[in-house]
Amino acid sequence: MKKLYCFLLLTVSLSILAACGSKSTEGSNAEYTLRLGVTQNEQNAEYQAIFQFKEAVEERTEGAIEVETYHSDQLANIPDLIEQASIGADVGTVSDAAQLSDLKKEFSIIQSPFMFEDTSDIERFVESDLYQEWVEEFTEQGIRILSFNFQLGERNLATTHPVTNAADFKGSVIRTSGAEIVNATISAMGGSPTGMPWTEAYPGLEQGVIDGVEAHNTAIYESSMYEVINHIAKTNHYQLVSALIVSEKWFDSLPEEYQEIVLEEAKAAGERASEMSLESSIEYEELMKEAGVEFHEVDREEFKELADSVYETMGLQEIRDEVNAVLGK
User: Fold this and answer.
1) Average pLDDT of 299-326?
2) How far apart are CA 95 and CA 242, in angstroms?
3) Which of 30, 128, 148, 317 is the right S-S partner for 66, CB 3.0 to 4.6 Å?
4) pLDDT tens across 68-97, in order?
5) Residue-range definition of the domain harbouring residue 256
6) Separation between Cα atoms, residue 193 and residue 210, nearest integer Å
7) Cα 242 to Cα 152: distance, rounded to the nearest angstrom
8) How many domains does the chain have?
9) Cα separation, 217 vs 156, whole angstroms
10) pLDDT score, position 28
11) What is the DSSP letter of 196?
12) What does DSSP say about strands 192-195 and 32-37: parallel, antiparallel, or unpaired?
């Protein structure tokens, strides 16, 4: 019943959104249509990347595949899009590992606290046989991971009060995506996680409902979050790397030559998003400092020790050992 309800809800939503997002020209003779939605706004690297994906796929398939792109949760939020894709709707999104872990628990290890030293470790893991096994198992859940290379930056604590150590952070109400691994991480570090849509975080901070968010520089700056937070603690509790995902049913319906195009352009989109995010992160940090936001270097080992309990709480100890073995640690 839940899946039927979600499917009907998406159908109605897509009808309402007929005037939103990017559309192909009228009179299109497209044989296949894909709707991609992301949380961030149109200036964000995620959206710019999926728009590049749209243009490249439409050009290379000579219009046989039509891609519509939506920003700012216009299409639906990420959990809803994942749910819709899993039951066969022609939709997709850019999702982090934490939100995909609802379908496959092991995937949450990629977004576990202090798991990887840097993005190069993640890149090595993504090339491993173990990761490829996980990706194949996602198809059984109705999801096709086209690429997992959207490197969007380090996640830090952006708050209304200074956080220079774990004691400062204790009891802070922090907006999260609601993903279990993220909530567990914030709790272990001493905070009080509250899941809410990203679009509600700004008014939540403005009204004092929450004390901060855990986010990366591009998301903070491009959502004007720096107007309602005063401090950013550079915990770098994990590197945010996301996947471009679509419905396995939709992907499987494509001819083989179109599947290759979609996969190639998904990878290219992730590379573009990563380049833009790196450049923007450095620039935005300086701009936020000029706007009065204070950045604090913290003892990451202190937070790391606290967060280590997450692996036992979430039952990820064995998976962590497997991944570390792949990385030779």
Assistant:
1) 97
2) 5
3) 30
4) 999 999 999 999 999 999 999 999 999 999
5) 2-326
6) 9
7) 7
8) 1
9) 8
10) 73
11) -
12) unpaired
Residue pLDDT, tens place only, 127-148:
999 999 999 999 999 999 999 9
Tokens of 189: 């570090």
Closest CA to 65 of 21, 11, 100, 24: 24
Unique residue bearing structure tokens 């840097």: 118
Domain harbouring 268, CATH code: 3.40.190.170
Four-residue CA torsion sign, 261, 264, 270, 274 = negative
From 161, 294, 284, 275, select the one nearest 223 (Cα to Cα).
Answer: 284
Residue 71 phi/psi, 5-degree rounding, is -115, 175
Handedness of CA 51, 57, 59, 63 (dihedral sign): negative
| Rounded CA separation 235/214 (Å) | 10
Name the β-bridge partners of 37: 70, 93
Q: Please give the full DSSP string across 285-316, using - where no structure is assigned.
A: HHHHHHTTPEEE---HHHHHHHHTHHHHHTT-
What is the spatial distance between Cα 80 and Cα 232, in angstroms, rounded to a whole number?
A: 30
What's the CA gap between 112 and 317, in Å, rounded? 11
Gap between the Cα atoms of 111 and 17, Å rounded: 32
Helical segments of the chain, H only: 2-16, 45-60, 78-86, 97-100, 119-126, 129-139, 166-169, 180-188, 201-206, 217-222, 248-252, 256-290, 300-307, 309-313, 317-326
Q: Can you read off the two tokens belonging to residue 114?
A: 């202090």
